[in-house]
């Protein structure tokens, strides 16, 4: 007898708990019809002016004056310890891989024979190529600029071999060699 009484009491308690936590269809319907943002007992400053052009304020409804008991709704009634949260997936950013080979232009320098500017090609932390973008031209300058180009430029030139701007000066092209080294130094400073 005692077991049957306990079973019936437990069943009634669990049913009541389900109704309270989940809300029965009747309480959901009533809860949906309740205003949510209005105070239970409005004071004169809480009452909004009437939109009626006659200036008569609407009478509060009987349900607003009557004491109300809190009614559980789906949004407020949850068993403790059963909070459900959804975590957003971590945001990942994917950058395009940087090219391991890049071209860097040195500052151009003007000497008495003409304008000199050098470009280096860098792969990782090594100079793999050097090219004179601009060298003096005209008359003997063509010959001396060709000597500078042959000595310093290209993957087999002195720039790649020494990996620095400490180059040997090309004979008969001292000004052009010095301007080349200055432009090369500025390109190396930008690259590294």
User: Which range does the strand content fall in?
Assistant: 5-15%
* Dominant shape: rod-shaped
Terminal CA distance reads 90 Å
Helix content: 25-40%
Query: Main β-sheet: number of strands, strand sense, barrel status?
Result: 4 strands, antiparallel
What is the succession of H and E elements?
Answer: HHHEEEEHHH
User: So what's the oligomer here?
Assistant: single chain
- Helical segment tally? 6
Uncertain segments are 46-53, 62-66
Supply Rg: 43 Å
Structural class, by secondary structure, is: alpha+beta
Number of strands: 4
Mean pLDDT equals 76
Would you give an account of this structure?
The chain has 192 residues and is an alpha+beta fold. Helix content is 36%, strand content 13%. The chain has six helices and four strands. The chain has helices spanning 2-22, 25-33, 62-65, 140-152, 158-162, 174-191, and strands at 101-105, 109-110, 115-123, 126-134.
Summarize, please:
The chain has helices at 2-22, 25-33, 62-65, 140-152, 158-162, 174-191; strands at 101-105, 109-110, 115-123, 126-134.
Topology:
Elements: H1 2-22, H2 25-33, H3 62-65, E1 101-105, E2 109-110, E3 115-123, E4 126-134, H4 140-152, H5 158-162, H6 174-191
Antiparallel strand pairs: 1-3, 2-3, 3-4
Task: From the structure above, extract its key features.
192 residues, alpha+beta, 4-stranded antiparallel sheet, 6 helices, 36% helix
